Amino acid sequence: MSRAYHTRNYDDGLFLAIARKLFVVLPHPPFLWATGGEIGCIERERQALLKFKEDISDEYGVLSSWGVEEEKRDCCKWRGVGCDNITGHVTSLNLHSSPLYEHHFTPLTGKLQGLVPDGFRKMSALTKLVLSRNQLEGGIPRFLGEMCSLHTLDLCHNNLTGELSDLTRNLSGRTESSLEILRLCQNQLHGSLTDIARFSSLRELDISNNQLNGSIPESIGFLSKLDYFDVSFNSLQGLVSGGHFSNLSNLKHLDLSYNSLVLRFKSDWDPAFQLNNIHLSSCHLGPCFPKWLRTQIKVRLLDISSASISDIVPNWFRNLLPKLAFLNISHNLMRGTLPDFSSVDAVDDTFPGFDLSFNRFEGLLPAFPFNTASLILSNNLFSGPISLICNIVGKALSFLDLSNNQFTGQLPDCFMNWSTLVVLNLANNNLVGEIPSSVGSLFSLQTLSLNNNSLYGELPMSLKNCSMLKFLDLSRNQLSGEIPAWIGESLSSLIFLSLQSNEFIGSIPLHLCQLTNLRILDLSQNTISGAIPKCLNNLTAMVLKGEAETIIDNLYLTSMRCGAIFSGRYYINKAWVGWKGRDYEYERYLGLLRVIDFAGNNLSGEIPEEITGLLGLVALNLSRNNLTGVIPQTIGLLTSLESLDLSGNQFSGAIPVAMGDLNFLSYLNVSYNNLSGQIPSSTQLLSFDASAFIGNPALCGPPVTHKCLEGDSPRSPVMNGVIQDNKETVHEFSAWFYTGMENGFCVFFCGLSGALLLIRSWRHAYFQFLDGSWGLLSLYWQLTRLDKKHRQTCS
Known about the structure:
By secondary structure, the protein is α/β, with parallel strands linked by helices.
């Protein structure tokens, strides 16, 4: 699955860092003289800029040209500063930075917090004010509505609250006539859009990612100058018809996505606009393919995913292809065969991307342009030989997902053509044969998923060249041989590794312990033998709890213009993970899991205590092996554990008392072992059904029906050792203590009291002795009570 991000070009200067704090463009100020016959910046404005820099964390040196040194005295020569050629006054601050990826800029950090600063009240000549990406709260103050020259107001990415109508009312003073750009995206505004039409000069309106409700009023059509309209990610609902767009002839960007809107247009509707970007994801457009799209011959980005369309793709759709940079028609019920997409042209060095997933398209893999950057055809009914992917020979392909189809044949040996590939997912098809050695040419690869096919043979050694791999899923195939040691030596970036349900033999290589970034390790359902490595505690990513990243994703290229990346998107990896006795498919929360699954092998020996050092582990499955020995007493250290399966082994001894301290444990299976003694009487363990303990005839006490006899009480070896090691010491101490107290009472008061009062070192030593003696006595009492308690429990 890909996670969609909006694509937008920001061409209006001051966007970066300082722009996130304050973007001010002043009109020409009154004439002021400059000394020395040279025009330079005004000193008080220079000092103001330096003061501003002090409040900014500039880790990347964006403002390195700003300084107090003599050679930097003229602030008009500082980066991003513009001055009037006559007066020397600063008229603009422009620190725009071309994004490497969409929404990714060279950052200047530093945040404005609280209400919109009242100091702007005195700046009545402001033309542009950008306070985006801060922590501003409250609403929009009335004084902003008195700025008669204000034509751009950007308050995106803050924590502004309140009714939208109240906020727009505060702006409806002198700025009703002048405001051209209004950006309030990524806040917490609620209410309706009823008062928006009063800003008749608006060219850009972005109120996306808020909590707006109600319908879109037809009065929006009165904004005849509007060319950018974005209300995505709100709770808008109701009907949208041609009347809403009757006067919007200048509209170029339309984003209504992720609302509950129903779009109903007459079959002969001919809109007045020519859109470049169309975002209508999650709007109800179907069931027919929207005919009005045939008029949009300039469209560059088209997203009509999750739009309830169950029609075929019409023939006229070919006319829209030549200029498309990105097409998303995923998550519909479209059917039939697809047209030839090779006619998409590389206009302006664009590398197009396609997401046609989750439909019912069938037939052979259609042709795509040689310069395709991303191709998502997953969850359809495509069939035929997978070798057709070799027809995509362009050097720009960074993302290929053909999973969950019916492709057949052997993997072609043509991967050397795709040096930029980041994601390759061919899972859940009918592929056979060996993994070709050319897969080792994918030096940029971060995700490789080939699970649930019929691939066989050993892993090609060339795969060790894919050192950037984070996600490797080869499960549910027929791969064989020993697990290569080079996985641990060369693939150090791995976060997810699954070799489940194959035919691997041999032992678990110790080199896997070098995968310090690994969070999920699944070697289950193979024929692996030998012992569990003691070095597993070197998997340090499993020591930390999964609180930061909930997903495991990859950034991939969708298009490029003039040598610069125009848009990047994210692919979210998903995988099947054994969890609480069943297999579940995880996507959004895969990154939170910390899992070791060695079930269904021929492992022998004991559970190494070192494994209990993985404090972030949430699932441990060692079931159906030949493991022996006792369950480690340190199992109680795994406080994050939610699922524990030790069934089908040869474990003996008692269930550790410490297991009752696993407060998050919601699935436990220790059935079919040789465990004995009473099941610890903790609330946690008593909550499990008797089936979790079946197949251990010597176990007694609830929840099983076998009652315990004298001597069956569960005692941890650690506690038993303490009792045995200290038994003689405690008795010896008690006899000495009471005898000494009786015979030495008078000597103490008559002889020692005076000395202790006079000699400080003696006094300290004596009280340390008493403190230690009392500790031993206290230990003796506690052990006696504990032993008595256990005897009463088992009687």
